Amino acid sequence: MTSSLGPRWAVAGPVVSNAMGGGGGPDGFRHFMQHLGPAFGVWLEDARAHQLQWDTDTLDSLAQTVGDGLPAGDKAAAQAARRDRLLIQLLRLIQDDNGK
Fold first, then answer.
1. Is residue 15 located within the same domain as residue 47?
2. How many separate domains does the chain show?
3. pTM as predicted
């Protein structure tokens, strides 16, 4: 997400990104949906069939697993500062591009 969809959506938005994925132009979004739309239905059916059970044990397990992979204390603050710095840079680039 941070090196593919996220940056693309940040600069173009999801609709334009999907239209470009379908070849761009006025028919790009239609082509994208004709090509991938049926798969979306299958993915949704699969997601519904495998819904997460929100019981306390499951939530505790997920929270522990996610927490194990995230920095704490000063490292968490450094991660937040990095995120904010990159977001500001990205927003400045978008603003500069829009103000050509």
1. yes
2. 2
3. 0.61
- In terms of domains, do 29 and 1 share one? yes
Cα-based torsion angle of the residue sequence 12, 18, 19, 21 in order, rounded to the nearest 10 degrees: 110
Angle between helices 28-49 and 5-21 in degrees, nearest 10: 120
Between CA 46 and CA 14 the distance in angstroms is: 23
47 lies in the same domain as 61: no
84 CB-near residues (< 8 Å, 6+ apart): none
Domain that holds residue 81: 55-100
66-89 per-position pLDDT tens digit: 999 988 889 988 989 999 998 899
72 and 28 together in one domain:
no
Helix axes 73-98, 5-21, angle to 10 degrees: 40
